[in-house]
Amino acid sequence: MTYDIGKAALVVMGEAEGQSFEEKKWIAHVILNRLKHGKFRPIEKDFIGYRRAIDIDEELEREAMTDAVNAAVLAFYEHLVGIDPTKGATFFATKKYIKEKDPNEIFGVKVEPVPTPNYFAHQFYRLVTPSK
Fold this sequence. Notes:
Blueprint: H1 5-16, H2 21-37, H3 43-46, H4 59-80, E1 91-94, H5 95-98, H6 103-107, E2 111-114, E3 122-127
Antiparallel strand pairs: 1-3, 2-3
């Protein structure tokens, strides 16, 4: 498993700019959970936010990117010591978007919601593992 802090920070910035630090950290945990799972595509192919242009010469974007980097680093540390506030989440979508669609259809696999703080803009989901 290779976790690229720079790529993770770009995803966090693109997906959760303007959200709380905690929500940004949850986005980074999703990346780590996907890497741990091993069956997902590279993050630059799976996350829309990764493709967002970021102008670090602009002060507000530079501050937001610093926050995203810090969230990506802290999530990595938490992962190393066995802390995962997302309880294994491997997907997320904005609550506004998910309200109109079936998450299983959006993600193309069977998922279940993870308890997510009410103030988050995103809802988090984990894969449902078939019983043996």
